[in-house]
């Protein structure tokens, strides 16, 4: 299966990498794409980032940082002066 690189700069980069590593273009492109894919897959998801943030925030606050919001407190939030 043929793969044509139509961008001159991209082709030049692939050739430089292949020459530096002493390997063919196919291997150089394959390794670069594999490395990029592995890097992207290793990134945490937005859910994981959110969970991590919440845990870190809770750890900074400490176990006794807040008080439970009882009905009187919640009602006081809506009182008008």
List keywords for this structure.
single chain; mainly alpha; rod-shaped; 68% helix; 0% strand; 81 residues; 4 helices
Q: Gist?
A:
The chain has four helices and no strands. With 81 residues, the protein is mainly α.
Structural description of this entry:
With 81 residues, the chain is an all-alpha fold. The chain has a domain at 8-62. The chain has 4 helices and no strands. α1 (8-21) crosses α2 (25-42).
Assembly of the depicted chains: single chain
Biggest sheet character: none
Q: What integer value in Å does the Rg equal?
A: 27 Å
What helical percentage do the residues reach?
A: 55-70%
List SSEs in N-to-C order.
HHHH
Cα distance spanning the termini = 75 Å
- Summed up, the helix count is 4
Shape: rod-shaped
Topology:
Layout: H1 8-21, H2 25-42, H3 46-61, H4 71-77
Helix pairs in contact: 1-2
